[in-house]
Amino acid sequence: MIPSPDHLLVLPVAIPLLTGALLLIFARWPLVVRRAISGVAAVLLALIAIQLLMMSGDDAVRVYLLGDWAAPFGILLVLDRLSALMLVLTALLALFALAYAVQEADSDGHNFHALFQFQLLGLNGAFLTGDLFNLFVFFEILLLASYGLLLHGGGAERTRAGLHYVVLNLIGSSFFLIAAGLLYSVTGTLNMADLAVQMRALPAEDLPIAAAGGLLLLAVFGLKAALLPLHFWLPHAYGAAAAPVAALFAIMTKVGAYAIVRVFTLVFGVEAGPLAGLADPWLLPVALASIALGTIGVLASDDLRRMTAYLVIASVGTLLAGIGLMTEAGLSGALYYLVHTTLVTGGLFLLADLVANGRRVGARITPRERPAGAGVLSVLFLLGAMAMIGMPPLSGLIGKLLILLAALPEPAVQWVWTVILISSAMLLIGLSRAGITLFWRGPPSPQAAPSALRLLPAAALIGSSPLLVIFGGPLTDLAAATAGQVLNPDRYVEAVLGAATVRETVGGAP
Predict the structure, then answer these.
(1) Rounded-to-integer distance, Cα 248 and Cα 261, Å
(2) pLDDT at residue 105 in the model
(3) CA-CA distance, 38 to 27, in Å (whole number)?
(4) Across the chain, which distance is largest between two alpha carbons, in Å?
(5) How many CB atoms lie within 10 A of CB 181?
(6) Based on C-alpha coordinates, what's the Rg of the chain?
(7) Which distant-in-sequence residues (6+ apart) come within 8 Å of 500 by Cβ?
């Protein structure tokens, strides 16, 4: 085990927890003070996440034992390349979403900044935890915060969307507990490293129960990731949420994707005996179907915010298609695509709000009037659309190309290529229609054009796409190294439990 010498590993959880509690207790403080506290916390999180990513570059898996209770009995946080990458991505997205929120959107309620910090607590905890039950706990924290953020600002549309969102996620949480109970009943543990070890030596009579628990987890994570047929909550929720909330929610579906990668490469990975590859027959077909459904949703959307929500579904399908190949090349391409799609879709949600505020008819895709500041907004929309379609020279092309190349040796290569390429062509049609209607047709709106400061967060997130191309070499190297580490579960298990403990558990007492 390699300890974290300066306890940096616990800070992504501790900082938003303490900041959120402080903001909740002093919710009546002046808004400018709450903005300053939340902003400082977000900047600190970004700096710490970058430092943790640099620490993970030595390919070590670091373990932080809370209360110094030894695994598998205590609560622990685990840092590897994958969790560090997700922490950085969350911190960057949150920083720009918060920069947009403090310009107006956070003034609609006293608890926006507290909920925002608790959301970050749940996200960071989910990416760092090494225990299945604590993954459930952090899921619940981020979901509870997201309920409040979704309803921020009020209104009938948000209330309806929030009701559906709450009910479905409560059902998902119930299934998560059932799945955890099934796995605990046959293994006696919920520590993910220990689960991986116990799964290798599971008696034949216990295999059906473990398989049922694993498949139930896949369904729960599929709900979080908005995979078909568990997607229907997302367009309503993301389309109705306030712009900075929807932008932060761009990472929410990636939590489901992360959980799929973590659990089904570690607990049900190549070393899991008869249950190895438990998710393989389901993941790729469902991912391809989600791409098709998200694409159809984009074509059918008459509102830019709803269209962006369907882009999230299509992009999650593409991401899971790479993961579903269950190869190092496929996972590497998926991780590059994950960074691209999270940042760009977050920027598109902010852009949709700028368009809506610059028109008297909101974000509806209608030629009745062009938004104020249409020149700059149209350029940002063009960049974002090209990136999501996968057109050169932006990052969407690289991400999709990496996944397509990874599929070449696989039996499902025809399906992967066909669905992704047809989807890209249909997205070109749908987004082109939206862009022409919004920015080329109708008289100019009398609304005030957005300020440069208000444009900056959306421009930064969408502008990350060409940066991901410029720094494509180091990023693809990072993605490849991360994929290699994730697909070598023994390194994770030995870091948490110790090599000697693993050998004794699998091979019997020495």
Answers:
(1) 21
(2) 81
(3) 12
(4) 81
(5) 14
(6) 22
(7) none
2 DSSP 8-state letter: B
Would you say residue 2 has pLDDT above 60?
Answer: no
- 132-150 and 112-128 helices cross at what angle (nearest 10)? 160
- Please report, rounded to a whole number, the percentage of residues in the chain having pLDDT higher than 70: 96
Report the candidate in 451, 432, 472 with the shortest Cα–Cα distance to residue 339: 472
**Predicted pLDDT of residue 436:** 93
What lies within 8 Å, CB to CB, of 163 at 6+ separation is none
Count the Cβ atoms, other than its own, within 10 Å of residue 267: 27
Q: Nearest 5 degrees, angle CA 225-CA 250-CA 453?
A: 180
DSSP state at residue 204: G
At 357-392, the pLDDT tens digits run 888 887 788 888 889 888 899 999 999 999 999 999
DSSP 442: S
Both tokens of 475, joined, read 């990023």
In angstroms, the CA 457 to CA 102 distance is: 11
Token readout for 260 is 């799929």
Q: How buried is 481 (Cβ within 10 angstroms: 0-12 exposed, 13-18 middle, 19+ buried)?
A: middle
- Per the listing, tokens 């930064």 go with 460
pLDDT on residue 510: 31
pTM of this prediction?
0.93
Handedness of CA 301, 306, 311, 314 (dihedral sign): negative
